[in-house]
User: Which sequence fits this backbone?
């Protein structure tokens, strides 16, 4: 199951980055977000998976697609890959990153903590969220209000 | 081979690199925002994977906060894109020479 979701994630991300039509990229991004939701389920984060589908694949992507249709961006030209020095640096960095990723992939596990009963259930998540993390939670709500006001002010048509 | 935390870290690193590539190379502002979303999601995978590894909920709570942050970022970013498009009729970041209006 992990490999299925991982393939969906990577494939969607590649489509989102490498296709030049923004709408096709948005569809790829939706696929990637749903794949990440699947990964969250595998990691016993059921509440986060639901929030991922509702908030990300739902609200955020509707917003992005709406703005894509609104501004109707032209097709981009080919990706600007130029400069022999930058290509060299990029190749070296890519090799290092691939080596590290491969090492992490081959090493795999490591010891896992025994899961307490009800790990990842909404009850346990809520206990953590409204217990130790209550103040950051309230600050996040303030952040969302600020972002909403900022979006309204920025997008308002000036007369 | 059982799937361990290393597999999730490798997946997150791959996604992060793809997203960073998009942020650096794409010229369309909306595509840059979408690549940023990919990077934030890869960070979320790492948080949740280590929450599973440690058997605590702190990582999941932080991933939840990152989601709220990403929603706020998208809202303001898209509002900026609309305001910018109204002035300059473009969302190409190469043509963003002037922020005055």
Assistant:
């Amino acid at each position: 199951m992990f490999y299925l979701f991982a393939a969906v994630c990577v494939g969607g991300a590649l489509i989102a980055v490498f296709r030049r039509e923004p709408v096709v990229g948005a569809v790829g991004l939706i696929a990637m977000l749903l794949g990440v939701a699947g990964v969250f389920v595998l990691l016993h984060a059921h509440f986060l998976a639901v929030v991922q589908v509702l908030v990300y694949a739902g609200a955020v992507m509707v917003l992005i697609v709406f703005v894509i249709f609104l501004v109707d961006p032209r097709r981009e030209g080919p990706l600007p890959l130029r400069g022999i020095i930058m290509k060299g640096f990029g190749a070296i960095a890519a090799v290092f990153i691939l080596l590290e990723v491969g090492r992490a992939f081959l090493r795999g596990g490591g010891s896992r903590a025994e899961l307490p009963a009800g790990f990842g259930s909404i009850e346990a998540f809520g206990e953590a969220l409204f217990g130790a993390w209550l103040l950051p939670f309230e600050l996040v709500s303030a952040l969302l209000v600020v972002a909403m006001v900022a979006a309204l002010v920025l997008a308002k048509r000036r007369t | 081979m059982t799937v361990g935390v290393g597999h999730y870290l490798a997946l997150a690193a791959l996604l992060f690199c793809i997203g960073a590539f998009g942020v650096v190379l794409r010229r369309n502002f909306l595509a840059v925002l979408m690549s940023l979303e990919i990077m934030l999601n890869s960070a979320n995978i790492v948080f949740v994977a280590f929450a599973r590894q440690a058997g605590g909920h702190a990582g999941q709570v932080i991933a939840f906060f990152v989601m709220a942050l990403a929603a706020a970022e998208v809202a303001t970013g898209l509002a900026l894109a609309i305001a910018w498009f109204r002035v300059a009729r473009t969302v190409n970041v190469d043509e963003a020479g002037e922020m005055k209006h």
Q: What stands out?
A: Chain B has a mean pLDDT of 85. Residues 58-88 of chain B form the longest helix (31 residues). Chain B has three helices and no strands. Chain B touches chain A through 68 residues (CB under 8 Å).
